[in-house]
Every structure is written in structure tokens, then in C-alpha cells.
């Protein structure tokens, strides 16, 4: 069997019949049938019970077993071809960058804005996920680079130790983030502007950029320790994707939205710097050392310039 046959069979299983598959996969039904029959003949087992207008295409018991290996081969092939693009620098003008679902990631936004200005033909694809998931995508060749933020007292290599595989991952420190901001409605905390203490938010529910049950709990850990030191129990909630919907809700509800910098302003919302914040974090850029894509090199040059500026160089 060849890779085209493997890829087609991996996809055919998602359709009701060969005709539907042909329409979506840009093949004729006869070609798809030919591929399936060829693989079935080579394996010596029937993979599918053919579907028609009254019955759907289904896998035979043997097909369910064999499909697992066929799909693994298809995924491995796609990964290999993706790595080929990275290693040879033939990925075109697309660069895929991952970052955390958080508010106030101003340094990242400034870097990406400078990158797009300097590379006007680049197509930027962004993915918002948690740190461990970003590393998994990076190792699989699905991302060119990822920005992650970790507590300053946990080295990145230690945080990712259990999921770092044999791939050569470069982890570069971009900047230290020593301040923490809280966005709240102007209807709450009257008389407090610009700065506040953590204890001022004892009656608020904190909105954080991940579920408390996720594997990335550093944000919760820091907030929980601050609450304990100030004599109250932290109340939290999670709003999927952390989009601007949360600010509209915060105008009506006593919500404290955690931010790492003042990157923008929203009507009806004031942003207060915590004067007693004790848990700095580090912003890192992760990439695979074997990725020779020119756009990635350009991005890393800009990151280096921002890092030098932040370090006073």
C-alpha cells in the first residue's frame, strides 16, 4: 500500500459512504473504492461494510483493529512531512505561534506586531492553549514557536520535565514579569484608583485563564497563596477563551480579572496594580532547534532585541 491509500482510508471512515468522501476529499468514488479494495486485498481482510443511500459505511471488526495502525501511519507521515518543511525551511510564508489564554500579554503582542511589520508577507496563525499542550503541539511539529509564562521559581525545564521528549527544544527567556494587575468594574472599590492591595479583593471572585482542574495551575497557586497570606479563601471562576465577554460581565458582577500588564482599556473597567504582589513570573519562547524556517529566525531576532532592551543592554 502507498501513503495516498493510507491517507484516504484514514479519512473515509469519517463519511457515510464513498460518494460523500469523494466530494470532500476531491477524489471520484471509483478511485476511493479502488484504493480501499487494493488495501483490503493486500491485508487479506475486509475493512468496510460498504454504505449506500439506506445504510452508512461502517468498519468490519477486522477493520476497527487495522484502522488504528493505518491512522497511526497517516499521522506519522504527516508529522514527517511537517518536520521536513521545518528542517529545510520550506514552510512558505506561514508561521504558527502558540501562546497562553491570558490578558495583559503585552510583550508578546509588541513582539508579534514588530514581527508582522518587519515581515509584511508573513501569514501568522495563532493558537491559544495551556503551556503543556503548547509544548505537545510544538514537539509534534504543529507549531513553529510558543510563548509560555511560568512562575519564576520553577525553571521551565523542571516544569516540563515529564513531557519533554527526545526532541531538541530551545527554551529562551524573553522577560521577567514582576507585576500583577487586577481589572474590576468602576462600580466597585470606590475611592481606589491605579493601585490596590490583594486584601481589597477578598469579596471578589477571581477570573483566571484556565480551569482549576487543568495541569497548569501556577496562576491558581500564586493567587491562592496571596489569599491565604491575607486571611481569606480564594474564590475563582473560569470563562472559556478569556475573551472580552468577561469585561462586560465584570461591569455587573464583583469579578477580579487577573492581568500581567495594562495592554488596553475597556469602558467601565479600571485596572489596578497590586502593590503587594510577591510572585514574579518569566516569559519564555519555545521552539525546536531543528526548525530552520526563515520566519522563525526573524521572530527570534526580534525576541532577542526585546530581551536585550528589557535587560538594559
Q: What does this entry look like structurally?
A:
It is a single chain. By secondary structure, this protein is an alpha/beta fold. It folds into 3 domains: 86 residues, Arc Repressor Mutant, subunit A; 113 residues, D-Maltodextrin-Binding Protein, domain 2; 94 residues, 3-Layer(aba) Sandwich (D-Maltodextrin-Binding Protein, domain 2). It has 10 helices and 13 strands. The strands form 3 sheets. A 6-stranded mixed beta sheet has the order 8-12-7-11-9-10. β1 and β2 form a beta hairpin. α1 packs across α3, α1 crosses α4 and α5 packs across α10. The chain is elongated, with a radius of gyration of 25 Å. The chain starts with a helix and ends with a helix. The relative contact order is 0.15. The mean pLDDT is 84.
Précis, in short:
Helices cover 39% and strands 20% of the residues. It is an alpha/beta fold and 313 residues long.
SSE layout and pairing:
Blueprint: H1 3-12, H2 18-25, H3 29-43, E1 48-49, E2 58-59, H4 61-88, E3 94-99, H5 106-118, E4 123-128, H6 131-139, E5 145-151, H7 156-159, E6 169-177, E7 181-185, E8 195-196, E9 205-207, H8 218-229, E10 236-237, H9 245-250, E11 255-259, E12 269-274, E13 281-288, H10 294-310
Helix pairs in contact: 1-3, 1-4, 2-3, 5-10
Amino acid at each position: 500500500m502507498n501513503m495516498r491509500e493510507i491517507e484516504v482510508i484514514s479519512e473515509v471512515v469519517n463519511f457515510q459512504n464513498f460518494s460523500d468522501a469523494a466530494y470532500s476529499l476531491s477524489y471520484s468514488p471509483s478511485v476511493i473504492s479502488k484504493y480501499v479494495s487494493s488495501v483490503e486485498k493486500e491485508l487479506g481482510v475486509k475493512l468496510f461494510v460498504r454504505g449506500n443511500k439506506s445504510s452508512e459505511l461502517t468498519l468490519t471488526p477486522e477493520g476497527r483493529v487495522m484502522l488504528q495502525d493505518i491512522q497511526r501511519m497517516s499521522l506519522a507521515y504527516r508529522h514527517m512531512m511537517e518536520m521536513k518543511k521545518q528542517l529545510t525551511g520550506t514552510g512558505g510564508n506561514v508561521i504558527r505561534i502558540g501562546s497562553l489564554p491570558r490578558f495583559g500579554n503585552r510583550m508578546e503582542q509588541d513582539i508579534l506586531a514588530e514581527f508582522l511589520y518587519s515581515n509584511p508577507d508573513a501569514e501568522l496563525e495563532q493558537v491559544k492553549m495551556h503551556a503543556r499542550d503548547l509544548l505537545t503541539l510544538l514537539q509534534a511539529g504543529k507549531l513553529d514557536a510558543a510563548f509560555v509564562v511560568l512562575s519564576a521559581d520553577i525553571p521551565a525545564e523542571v516544569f516540563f520535565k515529564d513531557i519533554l521528549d527526545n526532541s531538541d527544544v530551545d527554551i529562551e527567556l524573553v522577560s521577567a514579569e514582576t507585576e500583577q494587575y487586577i481589572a474590576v468594574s468602576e462600580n466597585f472599590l470606590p475611592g481606589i484608583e491605579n493601585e490596590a492591595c490583594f486584601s481589597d479583593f477578598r469579596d471578589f471572585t477571581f477570573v483566571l485563564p484556565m480551569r482549576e482542574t487543568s495541569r497548569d495551575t501556577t496562576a491558581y497557586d500564586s493567587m491562592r497563596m496571596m489569599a491565604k497570606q491575607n486571611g481569606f479563601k480564594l474564590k475563582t471562576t473560569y470563562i472559556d477563551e478569556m475573551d472580552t465577554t468577561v469585561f462586560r460581565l465584570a461591569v455587573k458582577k464583583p469579578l477580579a480579572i487577573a492581568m500581567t500588564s495594562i495592554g488596553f482599556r475597556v469602558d467601565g473597567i479600571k485596572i489596578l496594580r497590586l502593590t503587594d504582589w510577591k510572585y514574579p513570573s518569566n516569559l519564555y519562547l519555545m521552539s525546536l532547534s531543528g526548525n530552520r524556517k526563515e520566519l522563525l529566525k526573524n521572530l527570534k531576532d526580534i525576541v532577542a532585541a526585546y530581551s536585550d532592551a528589557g535587560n538594559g543592554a
